[in-house]
């Protein structure tokens, strides 16, 4: 062993003669998305069977839960808002597509 480092840890090695060095790393939790903008768009443009309204309500609830510090509640409400948004957009798109196909079919017939 080198005489300078006889009673010390080698450079780059954790700890020293007395013990082990511990490092604590705080990883920030990713903030929960509340999908409020998407819900507003679904409410205004894709409010099929009031699903956009349901998405908007759950988005506001998710934002309230996030403000209170309840991450689990915020995650649950945000998940519901996301599902309502997806269903509203899919059903509205499908309805619009079917309407366009029917209009084209009727126009071609005449």
Quickly describe the structure.
It comes from Poecilia latipinna. With 110 residues, this protein is an all-alpha fold.
Would you spell out the secondary-structure blueprint of this structure?
Blueprint: H1 36-45, H2 51-68, H3 71-109
Helix pairs in contact: 1-2, 1-3, 2-3
Describe the structure.
With 110 residues, the protein is mainly α. It has a domain at 33-68 and 76-108. It contains three helices and no strands. Helix 1 (36-45) packs antiparallel against helix 2 (51-68) and helix 1 (36-45) packs parallel to helix 3. The protein is elongated and about 90 Å long. The mean pLDDT is 86.
What labels would you give this structure?
0% strand; mainly alpha; 110 residues
Q: β content, as a range? A: under 5%
User: Could you state the order of secondary-structure elements as H and E?
Assistant: HHH
Approximate helicity band: 55-70%
Q: What is the approximate shape?
A: elongated
* Mean pLDDT over the full residue set: 86
Oligomeric nature of the chains: single chain
Query: In this structure, how is the largest beta sheet organized?
Result: none
Protein name: Interferon-induced transmembrane protein 3-like
InterPro entries: CD225/Dispanin_fam (IPR007593), IFITM_antiviral_protein (IPR051517)
Main location: membrane
Transmembrane segments: 35-60, 81-108
